Every structure is written in C-alpha cells, then in structure tokens.
Amino acid sequence: MPADRLLSTLLRSLQTYAEQQDTPRLLATATSLLTTLSNPHNLSLLTSHLLTAPALWDRPSGLRTCLRLLSVFHSAISTILTHHHAVLANSAPSPIPGQLPIGGGLSPDEWVRAVVAGADERSARWKHLMVLGGFLIGIGSQEEQGLELGWAGTLRKRVENALVKATNLALVEVREMGEVDAMGGWGIALVLNHAFGCLGDVERAGLDYDFLLPVLIGTAFFSSQGFQSAYFLGTVDLDVVGVAGKRFNWPAGSPSFKQVEAIISRPLVTSMGPLSRLMAHSVEQARDPWLIQTMMDDLASFSRALMTQWRQNKLSEIDVSEESLYLHDEARTITIPPLWKLLKAALFATTIVLRGVMGRVLGDSTLAADGVAPVLASQTLHTLRHLYFISSRLGPSSFSQHTFVYLTAIDILTAYPLQSDAFLKSIASSHLGQIPRHPLDRTLDLYFLNTAEHFTLVLSPVTNEELLVAAAVPYLAAGGNHNMLPIFEAAHSVMLAVLSAPQSAEITAKHLPFYIDALFKVFPENLSPRQFRLAFKTLLRVTAPPSPLSATQPDLPATLLELVHHRALHAPTFPLPPDAVTLALVGSDAPPLVLSEQAVLVLTLLDALPFLPIVLLEEWLPLCAEVMDAIKDDDMRDVAKRRFWEVLVSGEMDPERSGVAVAWWTSKGGMEAVLYGRERLAEADKMMSGALPAERKESKL
C-alpha cells in the first residue's frame, strides 16, 4: 500500500476508540510511517494525531500508553540514525525498487524538526515529552552501542534543551490544572525516569526541581501507578484464609494477589531504582528548603500507613522463625515472595530519598538550623521504624544506603539531648517491662533497643533506667528463647551502653548483679564468644578505676575475675558450635579456629588485663598463665598464647601497666610460664633425681 494511503487509513483508525482495537498494531504502523514518509508536513500531521488520538487517549491503560508512545519515537529515531550512519560508512543496503527509502530522503536534522513540529498546542504539553524523550533515549542508546554520531552532537544538544524546556512548561501546566497526581504528572515522571540519564549536567540544572519533586513523590508513593499510599496491603488480609493444620494460605488465584502482581509489573514500579535516584537528586537540587519538610511529612505518612496496613494483616501475626510451621506451602513459596519483593521496593525507594534528605541537611544551612535539623532527623528515624518490619528481614548491614541514613540521623539527633529524649519516649513500647505477644511489636522493640543504644551518653540517668533498662530487662530474662535471639543480643548491647555511660554509676551498682547473672546464664548457648568477651571487657572497664563506680565498689573487678577464673577451671573442653561470624568466614583465607568454652573464658580473662589496677594486674598475670595451661587442646592453647602476647605488646596497656607486664615477663618467670608452662609441668612429673633436663621446644609464637 502506498505511504499516503497507509497514512490516511492510520489517521482514520486513530480517530475512534474500539474495544477490539489492536493498539500495538496501530503503533507499529505509525513507527513504520515515521521512518519512511518524505513529506515533512505528513510527519508533523502524524505526530500531532498520535498525541491527540482518541484511539490512544480516550481510555488510556495507565502509563502503558505513554510507554508505548515513547517506544514509537525511540524506535523511529534509532532507525533513522542507524541508516544514516550506514550511509556515511558506505555500508547501507541498496534501495529496493518501489520501496520508500528510510528517512524519506530527509536529513536527520530535517526529520527531527518535522516530527517535533507536530507537538503543537493541540496536545497537552506533557505529551510532547513522549516525542522529545523518545528521541533523546534513542540518540543515547545509539551512542552506547558505539556508533560514531559526532555529526549528531548538535542535534542531541537541541533535543536536550527542548526536553528541559518542555518539562518545565509541562510541570507548570499540570500544577495549574491540578493534575500533579493524575495522568499528566505520571507521564512527566515516566519520561524523565527514562531520559534523565541522557541529559547533560548543564541541562539537568535547568529543570525546575521545586515543581518536579512533588510530582515524583506523588506519582511514586501515592498514585495508582506507584505504591497506592500502601493501601494494597489492606486487600491482602481479605484473601488470607485458614486451612487444615492451623495454617494460613493466600491463594494464587485471589484478587489481592493479582493486584500485587499488577503493581509489580507497572512501568514505574519496575524501574523504581532509577526513579528513586531521580527523586533523591531532586531533593538535593530543590531551591525551597521548606519543600523538603513537606516531603518528609508525606514519606512519614506513607511509611506509617504501610506499617498500619501490615499490622492489620493476618500474615503479620506469624513470626519469621515460625513461617514454615504456620504458612501453607502455596503462600510460602508462590504468593508471599512477590509481596515481599514489592515491600522491599518500597523500602529501597524510601531509603534512597531519605539519603538525599540527609545529604541536604549536612550541606544546607537552613535545614541544618537547630529548629529544623532535629525535626528532620527524628522524622527520618520514625520513617525507618515504620519500615523496620521489612528491613529487619534483610539484616543490618546488607543495605549500605540504609545504614548511612540511619546512622546520620542518629548522629544529628544526638546533638540535641531534649529532642533525643522526646524521640525515644515516643517510640518506646507500650508494653514496657514485658515481652509483647504480637511479632510486629517485638520487631519494633528490636528497633527501639538498637536505636536507643546510640543515645545513652546524652540521656539523663532517669531516662536510661526507666526507659532503656526497663525495655531490656524482660528480654535478658528470656535469653533461653532462640526465636528472640536478635532482641536478646540488642538488649545486652543496651545494658552495656547504659552501664558504660559516665552518668550511670548508681544505675550500674543497682543493676550489675542482675546483668552478670544473666550474662553467665546464657553463655555459651545464646551468646556468642565474641559477644561474651565484649560484654565482660566492658564490665571491667566500667568497674575498674578511674570509673566513678570503682570508688564505691573497689572489689568488683576482682570478683568478676574470680567468677570467670572459677568457671574456666571447670568449663567443658569440647569445641563450641560455630556462630554466625565463624560460619561467614569458613571459606576465607584464614578461617577462625572453633574454640571451647574453656578457651573462650581464658581469652576473656586476657582481654581484661589492660583494665586492671596495678595490684590486680600483678596478681592476675601469673594466674592467667596458669589457667591458660589448663587448656588441653594444643591449637586452642596456641590461640591463647598469641592473644596473651598481643595484650602485652600491642599497645592495649598504658605505660605504667606495660612496665609491670615487662618486669613480670623478663624477671619474674612470665616468659617461661606463658611459652613453656605446660611443658615444664609435664617434665616436672617425669623428672628423677639427677636426671638432665630435656631440651626446650621451640615456641609456636
């Protein structure tokens, strides 16, 4: 069919919407015509009809219509550029008789001008972005493929400038028409999400980020093309049903699961990574700092709604450690994984935006002001708390952006003690002093404990005791429950942080006996060797001079050492099960040796030496050498020897203690006791009167 007749047929088809209409076929025909028409007026006419056609826009299928139209212009310019590159390289195929040449004989510059002329006042300005965005993406993809397009550099710059100007005009238009959260705003977000990487730095600076940021946030988090204000979780609960065996199932054929699948497949959700980076960049470039505060309110509202919807879901009543017991196989393997994929996408997007906020606070004098910075930091921590039921499944260090946002917000807030006190009281458990039954409440307790640990130095002794200690004590008492091991470890960290605070001497004297008893009860079953050694070393630092507690309780360090020493003499000698750190390092170049409980206790005593008063140090140096010889396994004993030597020479001791250690090592039998103590004992048992001493073995140090 001749091109003119085909164009007329296509234009007639675009004038009316039909239920049985094959839209992809129409767009494929449009792409073909764009690359073959030779009359510039026909190119402009076709473009104008594509941007206004009732067949496309009367009942648009969300952003899929925009994405298809973007693809039309991307494919068209890619074909034009590829052909002209081949012509310049003398590698273009010979034209087939009767077939129109690619580009209709127009130069790329003439062709682009003709197509862009069709983006006129008859169509909304945001639709013009489909043309310019498709062109820019097409040019960028051709350059990425290695085509030499130096001749198109000027053309690209013109397209970039035109896209920026059209975007700013479209932002004003959708704002005036109230379409920020409607199709116009969605289309702007879609095009910029795909084309932003192709813009140069100068052109990016020309965007009006004050208008763009609300459009992006509204589209991503609150529109029907994004996360729908988190209300999709509310429909899930309606389809979660009980099945035989006291299990829950979420059928794959349920409407709510179909909705989750539809959300995941939306154009903006599938590309939420680049979109979140664009939102973070907009946060950093927005001129109005108060716009950031408004956006933070929106993010806090979204995250709060997400957590509230999750709490009202039956699935939230199942602890992570018990999912295999209470979830049907269909739910556990088919339906729930996509739901968590969607929730993680929401977490990642929110965190990336918050990263932009924290970076802005660090560099913006207005947002860093005393009346603003603690508010933004507190809002950030509240938002992360609402999303903690998602991030807690990923592990604390698996998402570096989350770690940066979390620690930066804490660092900012700790500079304001009054606001820190108010924040911790606002997130404290309503079940303070007891362990809540709902898994989500326990997850929030874990967030509280992990966060509160960082604030002990700026809180008053009353808050430390009545809030932090009160929250930790129930979990310390339940240390034997393997399902609550992460919360138990967090409670230990909080207790150590409180006891280490300089203003907590009275609290330490009051709660230390309980904590020591809890510490020894749970090791090694529910406390790793690394954690036990760290806890005991912290207790020695708290109770030894010059701490305030040592003035009223001078015998505490010796008492603690005696407890560990007595237990080390009678502790089991078989290797302990490897902890998470050991398992993670199994495949490394230097995997750690699995130690026995006895060896760990000996290492604990050695860790304490740099903190002992001089009198106790002189007493415990030979005692540590003696108890080290009680380790029967040669490899474990060698680990203890190396740690003993490290304590003496690595600088952990101050000059005065080092002098005592050197004197003991050189002139009081320290070297013989550490290096050859066990051999000397064995020789003494075998020695007869008049026998010659055996030659010394070389040390393994």
UniProtKB/TrEMBL annotation:
By its UniProt entry, which InterPro entries does this protein fall under? PEX8-like (IPR055334)
What is any Pfam family matched here? Pex8
Q: Which domain of life is it from?
A: Eukaryota
The record's section on PANTHER family has: MICROBODY (PEROXISOME) BIOGENESIS PROTEIN PEROXIN 8 (EUROFUNG)
Q: This protein is called what?
A: Peroxisomal membrane protein PEX17
Gene source species: Glonium stellatum
